[in-house]
Input
Amino acid sequence: MPHDHHDHPHSLLPSDPALRVKALETILTQKGLVDPAALDEIIDTYENRIGPKNGAHVVARAWVDAEFRAALLADADPVLAEMGYYGRQGEHMVVVENTDEVHNMVVCTLCSCYPWPLLGIPPGWYKSDAYRARSVREPRKVLAEFGVALPAETAVRVWDSTAEVRYLVLPQRPSGTEDLDEAALMALVTRDSMIGTGLAVSP
Amino acid sequence: MTRPHDMGGRFGDGPVTPEPEDVMFHADWHPRALALTLASGSLGLWNIDISRHAREALAPKDYARFAYYEKWIAALADLLVAKGALSREELATGQAIGDSDLAEKRLAPGAVAGVLAKGGPATRPGGLAAEFVPGDTVQVRAQAENMVVDGGHTRLPAYLAGRTGTIVRHHGTHILPDSNAHGQGEAPEPLYAVAFRATDLWAHPENSGDEVIADLWQSYLSRA
Output
């Protein structure tokens, strides 16, 4: 069964990407297969409603509530579903905890798998060839490009998302935050700290 | 023997460029390409493994030169034609020719939130019994290729082919992409997180304690 079509139909569309997308949307809309208002709704969802604030909410709660943290690390799916953070590209979640001994970091070398309900749409660098190619071989050099330097005693554990399981890093709680409540702690949790290319911000 | 998407461990890609959190897209057509792809998925003509394979099957020179969302749009156009939803003539002229029976499946704006929230679980009841438990030493098969379809889809990265690792987690029973991408059924199998020591993967590991963990299906593995 041949799987390589030497005349890919996409080459029939305009080569300029903006015109290409416009042309395909026009044909699909005329054909009744796509409603442009639904496209607007999808874009609005990921630009304004589903993003790293969701993940930060989970992390901040795990920092203040030991029982919640234990349940999250043991079996994240029911815990996240109860918070309303279930959905497309987050059907099977595993949360991995950073400690002094282990620093976790997430990549998808084969495409760009990412926990959408918790972090939104992946950033450009996460989808880049450089991040996908290098994170498994030289994670410490990649971390250095994000300004993160880890001691040699801290092991780096890189999770390559090759299946439909999605990983969220639970970053370490910064010191000096003992008096902060969940809402204040949320502001310290960056997107990159939940991918493992950053650390939570010190207040 | 590999395809250009399988780039884990590759040399020469240069630095990673961090970005602020509020940078989501770099051109107006990027979110449009994303939304068009998601909305077209509601037509029910393919599954996630078929759509991944369509992107991977782009010619290597196109895969390398296309920006991320260009890959999505090219694969979407190819899939729509392959599944008969659009004709080559429609793509070439930029105009729809005739109606489509699929129009009744069009994603309505009011249905978007529900569809995104519903997701599409990959776990299945039954399937093969689990052969491994956490702590077992396993060897990954030598070929990072689809064992049934020549040039077909697989989620076994080339940098792990033939390597020895340790089972650290059993994720349950998941659809096998190698089968599901080719209309050969879901063929659910146990899925495991398998840990590999950096010292076992690379000639020049950064640190002897570092590890890579990947999710691998049972048929990719044998007892070591």
About this structure: Chain B touches chain A through 113 residues (CB under 8 Å). The two ends of chain B are 25 Å apart (CA to CA). Chain B has two domains: 29-118, 137-223. Chain B has a mean pLDDT of 96.
